[in-house]
Amino acid sequence: xxxxxxxxxxxxxxxxxxxxxxxxxxxxxxxxxxxxxxxxxxxxxxxxxxxxxxxxxxxxxxxxxxxxxxxxxxxxxxxxxxxxxxxxxxxx
Length: 92
What we know:
By secondary structure, this protein is an alpha+beta fold. It has helices at residues 2-6, 20-30, 44-49, 76-91, and strands spanning 12-16, 36-40, 56-60, 66-71.
């Protein structure tokens, strides 16, 4: 949520194998930081991205190249020390 509030990059969510109504309720309850949420009901997009556990976060550049993959929760430290510096570097 903090990264979304910074507004430095659009954030897209991937609803990975969850039921749409369950995912929508979760976002209402906990907040929705996403520019858009995409659905991967069969897990095929996850396979293409190499997802093997959730949560996972990907930083993807303007050319569609995955520049970073973070496995696990995005903590304030990870956002501050890894994600934001990389996004700033890619934006320069």
